């Protein structure tokens, strides 16, 4: 039976609930105390836990489903808000939590596939599969890792087995599971954890997913099947760098197939990338990754160009643009004749079709058959610092990735803005690079808007300068077809590329100018002609602030400074 002390404690805690629920639960507790329910101890304990977690999670059907229900499994199934579909582009997810709720999973999806969704963002510490509901809960080691994952997948819709899935924060701060009832998922999780930490398999653990094996080499061999859209070296780097530091990439064509060798600094990173990416599609229904371990343990890159790259040696020459495949590597690769296994069901990689194709198009190398540039051109940007943000600052930052036409900061929600780009490819590119970045101290969220255009205020109506038309701005970077700017689009980084510097401006002048934006200048390097330079700030956030403040800054002598993000380091 329930002790009187526990009964009183729970009654006292229930005062936080609304009146209807209060009466219902108090009545239930009285019944428990009188012994009318033979498993009252379980119910009262569950109610006590439910009160701590909030009224929206209290007494779901799972709590009363069985008198022997284990409490550890109840905590994760009693969740009211997790099942509410995200509606309306101005609504944000709930409070951040390291536990994520994943919905709309395909019925046949495996634990490994769900775990792989979280691997690029940090250590996965627990998983609960609710296959009857096509749902799962995934727990990451830190809340920061979960925030990064949600930010990324809010802009890039994840797919499993060609089906879009939905990820949001759970109301639960910790995922407690009964391992005896969740053995398969726990076995997979332990095997993946072993790869992440020790790179050795766990003895005595049986895992049906044969992909969970110890890494053999830090070098991966990659073949692209069904290559409907071009895949560039930069696209491969963007995808694979989410699993660790990519040191070198060599791309080439063999047997009429695009292939690549990619080297990580650690074999564990190679194992994680293979586990998550093998058999997945870069673009929807095409460009399928076939990944295996190479027998090579080190790549010898001779040139840094669009065919090969050594990220540890930025000083390498560009060569003549020919494939920089060393003859010794080519000979070793020729011996690796085993075919890569083809999974029965392919899963499209979490990169949207237009965004990845836009990256290739931005390099000025390809047209994009089947990908319309007339897609959604309007972005919704939320969680802005409403005290600091202006249409001009948004124009400058988003203008790095496309020609911004109009900006409207919402009158009744000044932490949100609509930004209209010149075409759908530019909006996808801006969204993929800027979602989750910090601007004026706040992590911004960038998604596609339901609006097709940004309306200007009616004539004579004063909207306090919240809307601005930049359609005829001379500062558009991409108006000129074939501009070199298309070849220099990179994610935000701490290193900035400066150009159009007059001869009279010295290194000290530029250091002082950028330090005045509120950050710290860590390094500086002039190019040989002194018309361009690289400047490194302490953080990416500081670099973003400096770019907003100083792009188009008048340096005198009719020279306006041009600032962009660089892929290089100093």
From TrEMBL:
It holds the Pfam family RRM_8. GO terms for molecular function: mRNA binding. Transmembrane segments: none annotated. InterPro entries: HnRNP-L/PTB (IPR006536), HNRNPL_RRM (IPR055204), Nucleotide-bd_a/b_plait_sf (IPR012677), PTBP1-like_RRM2 (IPR021790), PTBP2_RRM1 (IPR035002), PTBP2_RRM3 (IPR034799), PTBP2_RRM4 (IPR034800), RBD_domain_sf (IPR035979). GO terms for cellular component: nucleus; spliceosomal complex. It is found in: Nucleus. This is Polypyrimidine tract-binding protein 2. It comes from Anolis carolinensis (Green anole). The gene is PTBP2.
